Input
Amino acid sequence: MSVLEMRDVTVTFGGLTALDGVGLAVAPQQVHGVIGPNGAGKTTLFNVACGFVRPDSGTICHRGTPAERLRPTDLAPLGVARTLQGLGLFDRVTVLENVMVGADRHARTGFLGGLLALPGSHREERALRERALATLDELGVAHVAGLYPPSLPYPVRKRVALARALVAEPELLLLDEPASGLSAGEIDELGTLVRGLTDRMSVLLVEHHMDLVMRVCDQITVLDFGRVIARGRPEQVREDPAVLAAYLGETV
Ligand SMILES: Nc1ncnc2c1ncn2[C@@H]1O[C@H](COP(=O)(O)OP(=O)(O)OP(=O)(O)O)[C@@H](O)[C@H]1O
Ligand SMILES: [Mg+2]
Output
């Protein structure tokens, strides 16, 4: 069974068709890439998967369960976590607290409950704190746990945002342009990191950087002008004439 399946999804904005009958299936423990030139519909597809954008037609299933009126708040209970193109970190709480917020799915009273000091929340908060620290450590940024996001370099903040998504132990991680703004070396590390997640989860990787996608993905869906123009394994997609034509004139 697929972790995420979209069938025949169409999204229009006014007169513009951003997605036109797009289908895609993310298999368990696979990295599924979505690539395509600027304006191809990648972010729109990501937003449909998150429930930010409701399609005009088509279906979305998370683990076989149709998510007809999916809203962003439905994601955590479905075992889905995401990072955003903008980082979405809270500036006025520490890195550690930012990550703890992401763990809400498993906490009985939740981090908010912790803040309100509900009964039983103390032990949970301590466990949560430890998990958040362990996740920061896994991403190599435990040393900034007590700092505030605005004081950190962008690549470090990206890792914090990723830690916040991972701490919920999702079954599906949705990543929109995780490589944007990173150096070649950092993109390389990111690739290794994403690849290392597949023993625990599936990943939908929406990304402009062809080379990263080629390196880490099991399956790739290529969009152009809102349509799927190719799909398959990296070596198949790389050679596809339609893909080469779509990327012609772009820096790949
Ligand atoms: N909220 C919106 N209102 C109107 N048009 C939109 C909206 N969001 C996206 N579009 C249009 O839909 C098309 C697909 O955009 P989308 O952002 O999904 O592309 P993308 O593949 O993510 O591009 P990029 O590589 O630049 O991030 C584009 O023509 C874009 O201008
Ligand atoms: Mg985009």
Residues 42-43 surround magnesium ion (ligand 2) (CB under 6 Å). The chain has a mean pLDDT of 87. The chain has nine helices and ten strands.
